[in-house]
Structure formats: structure tokens, C-alpha cells
Amino acid sequence: MRISLNAAVGMGGPQTVPHAVEEVAGAADNGLAAAWLPQMPPWAGIAGWDALTVAAVAGAAVPGIGLGTSVVVAQTRHPLTLAGQALTVQSAVGNRLTLGIGVSQAPVIEPTFGYPFERPVRYLREYLEVLLPALAGEPVEHKGEALIANGQLTFPGVTAPPVVLAALGPQMLRLAGELTEGTVTLWTGVRTISEHITPRITAAAETAGRPQPRVIVGSLVCVTDDPDSARALAAERFAGAGQLPSYGAMLEIEGVASAVDVILVGTEEQIADDLRRYEEAGASELIAVLFGTAEDQARTMRFLSAINN
Predict the structure, then answer these.
(1) What is the C-alpha to C-alpha distance for residues 303 and 170, in angstroms, rounded to an integer?
(2) What is the DSSP track for 55-100?
(3) CA torsion 22→30→102→1, rounded to 10°?
């Protein structure tokens, strides 16, 4: 299983773009597979840096390491616009980008952006019917129920980035397996990956004649000898995540009450065991969100570096 870092999001609040570049460089120096840049909603107290812009800046400064977005919200950018931006980033970073996209959730989209959250699977299917050929440089002529798009993008020497979806529900997992390279998840425990995510997306990919899909698991990770304090810190910021419908459904499958119940906290041996269980469940990559004290975070990075090399 690949080990990657979620850069520029931790427990310390807003961070600067240079800090994000430092975190990407730290991930590269420690031999991690990739650095993923989150696209946070424009809420008070959250640094809503543009993920693709930060990926371009960090990728130009830090060679070698893979880069990803987790995730760009589809409703906020027309698919031709997103294709052009993603290909521009690909050119800047030497074809190291994985484009993670998703439709977010109704309690985020409707009050924040004012867009109706209606038939999100249909919307995202149409979105991909425009985005994927546009990324490949093919002409697009699309007039659907949700989207209209006409155009063609030409970027010499640029490879279309692989696309993964933030897919959790059955219909989204089917769409991800049919049309993309996989899914990137959050707040999903081992049971959910094993019994829900992996079998559904794999079956969809097999039916579509596609390769084994990527199952990318995002999780808070803290190597520590004081797990109670670490969990209290995580609960202070993230316990309410389960109130969002998609995440709540995943926690119900897992059989737990709170998002804090699926984070990775403990000694090196305990977390190594957790990672083995995730890999056996079908996870192909971990995106680690480091948290805890500065000492805990440094210890966590040393551990992740050691098991990834």
C-alpha cells in the first residue's frame, strides 16, 4: 500500500501556501509516494487555498513526488474549465498530477454556493462525459440535462491526469468504477472499505472492462503514547463530520458513532496493524493527515517514512 501525505491541512488552523510547499517537500524528503492537496470550502477559519494552484506551485518547487487533489468540487467549475486548469498543472509539474473530484454534499453546496444539489450522480456522470475526453484532447460536443459543453483543448506534451472520484455511496462507486481510476475516501473504516467500498467499485470496473481501481483512504494518523489526548484533540475539531449525510452513512456501515472512531491513533505497532488490515481490505493508498503534538507529528512522519521505504 502506498503511503502519502495530506499537505496543508492539520490541526493548526489556516496555513500559508509556502507552508504547503514545505509539507510537500517534507513528504518527498521522507520518501512518501504523493502529496495530496485538499480543496476546502470557503468557511470561516479554514484556509481555502485553491488545490490545483498549490499543486502547481509545490510541484514546480519539489521534483519527483506525486501530487493529487482531494478533492475539487465539480459544481464550482465547468468541466472544460477544470480540464484546462488540470492540464496546465500537468504541464507545470511534469505529468505527476492525479485529479480528484467530487460533488461534495447538500449541506455544503446549497448554503455555500447557492446551487441546487439535485441528482448528483447524473450530474457527475455528465461532468465526466465532458471532462475525460477534454483531458485527452478530444473534441467535446455535449448537450445534456445538466451541462452544455463545446470545445477542444490542445496541450502539447501533456498527459491526461488520472481522475479519481470522492465516491462513497453505491451509485457513485459504480460510476467511479465504470469511468475513472478509483475512489478517494474519508472517514471510512476497515470494515467499510472491505465490505462496501472495495467490492462495489471493483465489480463496476470489471463489468466495464477496466483495470483494478485505486481505493485511496484518507485518515487522521497520530503515532503517540497518549492516545486519549490525541483523540480528544481530534474530537474537538472533527467529531461533527459524521453529521454530513455521506460520512454518516459510512460510519453506520462501520458500526461506530463518531468520525473519531475511525482515525488511526496509537503506537507504531498498533498503526502498522491497522494499515495491514486496510491493505487486506483492498486499500491501495493511505493519505495521512498528521495531527497531535509537534513531537507526535514528527514521530508519525518517521514511522510513515520507514514503512514506505
Answers:
(1) 34
(2) HHHHHHHS-S-EEEES-EEGGGS-HHHHHHHHHHHHHHHTS-EEEE
(3) 180
Nearest to 186 by CA among 127, 251, 257, 230: 251
Percent of the chain topping pLDDT 70: 92
Place of cell 484533540: 233
Entry pTM: 0.94
Which pLDDT band holds residue 113 (cuts at 50, 70, 90)? low
Q: How do 34-37 and 2-6 pair as beta strands?
A: parallel
**Residue whose grid cell is 475513472:** 180
pLDDT(118) > 60: yes
Q: Judge residue 242's burial from the number of C-beta atoms within 10 Å of its C-beta, 0-12 exposed, 13-18 middle, 19 or more buried.
A: buried
Instruction: Cell numbers for 50, please give them.
Output: 485553491
209 φ, ψ (degrees, to nearest 5): 70, 30
- Regarding predicted confidence, which is higher, 237 or 46? 237
Question: Of 4, 69, 58, which is closest to residue 34 (Cα–Cα)?
Answer: 4
CA geometry: angle 291, 293, 295, nearest 5 deg: 110
Closest by CA position to 296, among listed 238, 225, 234: 225
**Which pairing describes strands 140-143 and 148-151: parallel, antiparallel, or unpaired?**
antiparallel
Q: What's the distance, CA 73 to chain centroid?
A: 11
pLDDT, tens only, 14-46:
578 899 999 999 999 999 999 999 887 665 445
CA angle (277, 256, 289) in 5-degree steps: 60
> The C-alpha cell of 44 is what?
470561516
Instruction: Report CA Rg, the chain.
Output: 19
Give the C-alpha separation, 242 to 219, whole Å: 14
- Our measurement of the distance from residue 103's CA atom to the centroid of its chain's CA atoms, rounded to an integer in Å, reads 12
pLDDT band at residue 111 using 50, 70 and 90 as cut-offs: low
